[in-house]
Amino acid sequence: MTIRPLADRIVIKMVEAEETTKSGIILAGTAKEKPQVAEVIAVGPGGVVDGKEVVMELKVGDKVLISKYAGTEVKVDGEEVTILRQGDVLAVVE
């Protein structure tokens, strides 16, 4: 099954958090923070949203920074993805 987002929404897949800190300390599963960097896997067409024209600036493959609790998490074919609006993206990671 594939997901085709509507309007100004995007589908992202979270990038796995690092298992160790920069100083070499290995983190237990409960000590890890929710990752905030994700990869865009689908982009909606944009268009008029709430009376305003929205041009999609993101594209598939972009790495983005999102807030910790943005979007709606769903499971598709056993894989967890998040659907959110383009406006919920904080920055593109280059």
Task: Summarize the helices and strands and which ones pair or pack.
Elements: E1 9-14, E2 37-43, E3 47-49, E4 52-54, E5 63-66, E6 72-76, E7 79-85, E8 89-93
Antiparallel strand pairs: 1-2, 1-7, 2-5, 3-4, 5-8, 6-7
Spatial shape: globular
Main sheet attributes: strand count, strand direction, barrel closure: 6 strands, antiparallel
β-strand amount: 35-45%
Number of strands: 8
Structural class: mainly beta
Number of helices: 0
Please tell me how large the radius of gyration is.
15 Å
Q: What's the helical proportion of residues?
A: under 10%
Mean pLDDT: 87
Terminal CA distance:
30 Å
Low-confidence stretches: none
Strand arrangement across the biggest beta sheet: 6-7-1-2-5-8
Helix and strand run: EEEEEEEE
Structure explained in plain terms:
With 94 residues, this protein is mainly beta. Helix content is 0%, strand content 43%. The protein is built from no helices and eight strands. The strands form two sheets. The chain has a six-stranded antiparallel beta sheet, with no helix packed on it. It has a two-stranded antiparallel ribbon with strand order 3-4.
